[in-house]
Amino acid sequence: MHHANHFYGHAHILAEYCGLDREHPPRINGYLQHGWNVVDGLGAGTPYVPGRPIFVWSEQTRRRAWSMGRRQATVVGAPFLYLLTMRPEPVNSEPREGTIFYPFHGWEGQHIAGDHQRQVEEIMETEQGPVTFCLYWHEYRNDKVRADYERYGRVICHGYRGFQWRDTDIDFLDNQLAELRKHKRVASNRLSSAVFHGVAAGCEPAVYGDPMHLDQEDLPTADRVRRSWPELHGKHVDLPAARASALYELGAGYLASPSELRAMLGWTGYYTADPAESEDERTEVSA
User: Residue 66 in contact with residue 73, Cβ under 8 Å?
Assistant: First the structure.
């Protein structure tokens, strides 16, 4: 199993949904898309063994994968949507307030370049109410970057994504969901998984500010995102259009039942925690 299948606890969430061991998920028979992207669903530079299954979030991603020669792509929906079916919002939850902002981030292989100070100033000029800044672990560990945000609001990190099957925070998306449900708005300076997750969790989205750039980034691809998803860009967007687009990118309507997902991921031979589970008792996430 490719180690990226464990990123953000995705394999663990799917295992729980299937009634299997969340702490030790079985090996996935293929590659699971671990983040939203505008190509075939695989991460940049992912070594792909021809003919192996790819499990992607949306039909649009499946079509792009097909056009790139990845003929074994299957739409399963984003793991975050499966998490939502298992974590319904509490009936008596506290009223939402303020904004959670996700600054665009780098990773081990690529560092980000941009003016964080100017970014946070624009955020404070735009947002009403308290702002929570959620930094990716890579920037959260950078004292200078973190200090740029700490002067203006609460600064958090959902956890470590994981790498080579080590140190994965399997509660990463649970932590994210809990934070999103505290806020009215979710915003970023780049369209990303976090924005889509926020929409699915009931937040109003916004994408604005300096998009910043990664070392050796393919700039035409980055620019294409803004052209292709205008309904999700801006400080204030058309909410019905933005929600429909976000849920489509996450694969709403394509979620499999536990037994179907076990079959697709190669997990049919594993013991389920609830053999008598009803395949009809699952929550649909609709546009």
Answer: yes
